[in-house]
Amino acid sequence: MRIAILGAGSLGSLYAALLSQVEDVELFIHGRGSHGAHMAAHGLQLEGLATHFLSNQDVFFSLEEVGLPPHVFGTIDFALLTGKAGQTTYLAQLAHKLLNDEGMALCLSNGLGHAEQCVETLGPHRVFAASSTHGAWRPSPGIVHWAGKGETVLGSLTGGPGELEAKPLLEAFSVAGLEPSWSSDGLATLWKKVLLNIAINPIAALAGVENGTLLRPELFSSAFSTLLEGAAVARMERVVIPDDAELEQQLRQVITATSTNICSMLQDIRAGRITEISVLNQAIVLRGERAGIATPLNQMLVAMVNALHSE
To answer: CATH fold of 188-309, please?
Structure first.
């Protein structure tokens, strides 16, 4: 089975390092910048909850700055899109070139709208819904730190492939230790991850702390209240999500499991990169406005995170 990981940042690199240890899985990894260049030249080192060195002799690395090699076009069975907000359409176009006639794709990026962009480019019959709660960050180019073990959930979208089609990928994820499961409601899967992200990422980023610090009562209260605003929007859109008590439990569990993780938004702020606030809290604000639901906490977090970019 040939798997392409497109947009191999922190999360994509984690999946690459773990999947590379699965027998009969052949990897194609597409990265960019100093991290991508280091992987292509020297390989990838996994540290944290597990250690593994992925040699550049064992997998095929390519760089955005160079482009895709034509000989891999039409050879990929599954494409995992793991890039940042704003990259999804571009990565879906790459997947369109790489996938074989029966190939399928999924997007593990944070935020709302990614699955729709993949469907628009690839067609609904080739796209799974997907989310991941594994925690990963990059201490330096060529190194990924597995900070928190979570789960990988795949699900079906309207007109999309089902569990049978996902079975080979789910089995590979299981062997890799990525804790996979299947959901018959892909839309709910996407929203559950978004609700966790809007609660954790901006508050941890603004405070400059690891996820676990959010377990402090005053910070956890703010995070959960932010989540509840998003939950109200989801329910207005008729998305089936757990009740508030279960949502609180899930939030606490994820923060605990990723307690030493430096969230992607904090990584972006420290590196001077644009964050994913537009597809997270800002998306909640815009959808809330359309539904007539006030989301003041999300709106405040958007303003504060965006203010950092204007300094």
So the answer is: N-(1-d-carboxylethyl)-l-norvaline Dehydrogenase; domain 2 (1.10.1040)
